[in-house]
């Protein structure tokens, strides 16, 4: 019997489990360990609450989770509750699928001012991640500046621009919905160091901005390259640029109480304020060999809240080699050390879609198969984990516990919403009947 521990129950973790099942069938036992009592990683706490169809991919992971040879172990943080070395003593292979949950530092003067957040924290807040439930962003007045030119920046800008009625069918947490409903913000600026041709925004997410009830997106036509140049772009980016062009030439301007402006060629240099952020100091840039170079032209954008959507990094785990520059585990195509692997965002950094993690999971299982003796090496697997948990007093959660939490969240949903998430671990544990 082969005993596999997968640390992290996001897409990468479940695709790895699916691949292991396909390859070894009845001859493998897989424990998926997560620090939270609830599975699915960023499907639950990252993917936007108004993108429910994307979250539907969790049903595929559930099918894997409900098979006999896969077990979910919730509320165990690897690196603090148990060490990687301990897991390696128990399992034939340990796969780290811990994602990239930490915000990359902005590295600007003033980043410590109040009402400045990274997108992991801000998105975690409206999506009910227990770590960020207490964030309490102040949305009562002024303007938001969202730094970054990827889809996460678009998610954040869209959520800030929406009115409560536009969240019907979404699982945004009640507290965030209330704060957004009472929002006194009058606009969002999406700030990008480089230009439209350098965006990492996909057509679907950009197109959604055209359908907001009280906001119409605006792009300065001067920021767009000549139309003829679009022919050189790959089809996806070309489509995104076409959408940006439509934002630069809006039809007769409707009265929009909420301003949604793209500011390209604009590098943030400092956050200004007295205790709390009041403005972003920005330098105009031009692109030289694909890089943004400052022009010396400095200006300020008023900002009562700043959200930096500039990327994520993996959280280091004691004893596991870490590539600090890349912000992920040091690895050679997923191999970290004998018997220790990584996959998904923990392996390659925060890039690609949910689906990108599937081939990643299958590839890592092929590597494990190539490295390990067939049939495993006689390690104790689940029985060993249970003994360790008992000795350490770890009261871990199960998939059945998650199902009870799920049922309770669905049962307490406000009208029109699929669920009302519990935002604290204690409340989740209680819903699972463990308190
Ligand atoms: C805001 C946002 C929106 C997104 N929207 C989309 C979208 O619309 N469409 C799309 O295709 N992709 C989207 N993505 C990308 C997608 O979410 C990722 O590709 C995917 O979640 C990465 O999977 P993962 O398993 O590597 O990491 P994660 O999903 O982050 O899963 C990691 C898991 O590891 C657990 N964990 C972490 N550390 C430990 C530890 N020490 N011990 C135990 N457990 C631990 C975490 O609790 C988590 O469950 C979005 C990403 C973000 C950030």
Named CATH architecture of the largest domain: 3-Layer(bba) Sandwich
Proportion of strand residues: 15-25%
Q: What is the count of β-strands?
A: 19
CATH superfamily label of the largest domain: FAD/NAD(P)-binding domain
Count of individual helical segments:
15
Assembly classification: single chain
Rg, please?
23 Å
Percent helix range: 25-40%
Written description of the protein model:
By secondary structure, the chain is of the alpha/beta class. It folds into 2 domains: 2-101 and 314-397, NAD(P)-binding Rossmann-like Domain (Rossmann fold, 3-Layer(aba) Sandwich), CATH 3.40.50.720; 105-311, FAD/NAD(P)-binding domain. 31% of the residues lie in helices and 22% in strands. The chain has 15 helices and 19 strands. The chain has helices at residues 11-24, 42-45, 52-55, 58-65, 84-90, 119-126, 151-161, 174-181, 203-208, 235-248, 345-348, 357-371, 382-392, 399-411, 425-431, and strands at residues 2-7, 28-33, 70-73, 93-96, 102-103, 116-118, 143-147, 187-191, 215-219, 258-263, 266-274, 276-288, 291-302, 305-308, 312-313, 322-323, 328-329, 335-337, 340-342. Helix 14 packs across helix 15. It is globular, with a radius of gyration of 23 Å. The model has no long low-confidence stretch (mean pLDDT 96). Flavin-adenine dinucleotide is lined by residues 7-13, 33-36, 41-42, 46-47, 51, 54, 77-79, 97-99, 101, 123, 152, 155, 317, 344-346, 352-354, 357.
């Amino acid at each position: 019997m082969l005993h596999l521990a997968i640390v992290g129950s996001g897409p990468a973790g479940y695709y790895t489990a699916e691949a292991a099942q396909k390859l070894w069938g009845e001859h493998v036992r897989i424990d998926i360990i997560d620090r939270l009592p609830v599975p699915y990683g960023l499907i639950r706490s990252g993917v936007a609450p108004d993108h429910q169809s994307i979250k539907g991919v969790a049903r595929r992971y559930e099918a894997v989770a409900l098979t006999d040879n896969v077990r979910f172990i919730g509320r165990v943080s690897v690196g603090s509750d148990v060490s990687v070395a301990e897991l390696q003593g128990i399992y034939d292979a340990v796969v780290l699928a811990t994602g990239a949950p930490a915000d990359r530092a902005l590295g600007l003067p003033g980043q410590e001012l109040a009402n400045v957040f990274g997108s992991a924290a801000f998105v975690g807040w409206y999506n009910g991640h227990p770590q960020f439930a207490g964030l309490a962003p102040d949305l009562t007045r002024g303007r938001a500046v969202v730094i970054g030119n990827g889809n996460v920046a678009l998610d954040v800008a869209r959520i800030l621009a929406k009115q409560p009625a536009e969240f019907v069918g979404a699982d945004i947490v009640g507290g965030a919905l209330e704060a957004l409903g009472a929002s006194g913000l009058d606009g969002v600026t999406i700030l990008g160091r480089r230009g439209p041709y350098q965006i990492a925004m996909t057509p679907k997410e950009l197109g959604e901005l055209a359908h907001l009830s009280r906001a119409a997106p605006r792009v300065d036509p001067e920021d767009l390259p000549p139309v003829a140049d679009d022919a050189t772009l790959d089809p996806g980016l070309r489509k995104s640029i076409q959408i940006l062009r439509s934002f630069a030439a809006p039809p007769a301007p409707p009265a929009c109480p909420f301003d949604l402006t793209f500011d390209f060629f604009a590098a943030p240099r400092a956050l200004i304020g007295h205790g709390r952020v009041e403005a972003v100091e920005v330098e105009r840039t031009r692109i030289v060999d694909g890089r943004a170079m400052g022009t010396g032209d400095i200006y300020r954008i008023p900002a009562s809240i700043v959200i930096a959507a500039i990327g994520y990094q993996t959280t280091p785990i004691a004893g596991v080699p870490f590539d600090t520059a890349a912000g992920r585990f040091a690895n050679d195509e997923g191999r970290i050390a004998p018997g220790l692997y990584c996959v998904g965002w923990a392996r390659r950094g925060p890039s690609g879609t949910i689906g990108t993690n599937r081939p990643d999971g299958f590839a890592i299982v092929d590597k494990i198969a190539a490295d390990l003796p067939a049939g495993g090496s006689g390690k104790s697997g689940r029985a060993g984990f249970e003994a360790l948990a008992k000795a350490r007093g770890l009261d871990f959660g199960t998939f059945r516990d998650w199902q009870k939490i799920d049922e309770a969240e669905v049962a307490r949903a406000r009208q029109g919403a699929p669920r009302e998430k519990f935002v604290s671990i204690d409340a989740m544990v209680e819903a699972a009947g463990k308190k």
